[in-house]
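Data deposition worksheet. Section B asks for the primary sequence of the deposited chain exactly as it was used as input, without tags or linkers unless they were present during the calculation. Section C holds the resulting structure in token form. Section D is free text for depositor observations; keep each observation to a single sentence. Incomplete worksheets are returned to the depositor.
Section A, Depositor: J.P.
Section B:
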Amino acid sequence: QIQPVESGGGLVQTGGSLRVSCVASGPTFSYYAIGWFRQALGKEREFVASVNWNGDTTYYSDSVKGRFTISRDSAKNTMYLQMNSLKPEDTAVYYCNAKNSGGNYWGQGTQVTVSS
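Section C:
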């Protein structure tokens, strides 16, 4: 079974940029729809962005559209989320998700903190 593993979180100032990555161990990401979710302290987990199996279709939440870019590198079995113009409200644990008809799989999360 696929196991996503996130990395790249950290502390950044308002207006800064950060890139988080998600590497899949086990089956290749190619057989999954993959995406990013986030959960701020005391709030429910919310959708951020997703990309289809071949990378040609992307979706974004309204709150990040125009600032974040999702991409996937099939050769490296890796997904990225480039985050620009970060705001304090982007502070959250960011989770990688992979799903297909066989299941729905989550990584352990990586903390992104945006200081004001």
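Section D:
The CA atoms of residues 34 and 98 lie 4 Å apart.
The first strand starts at residue 3 and ends at 7.
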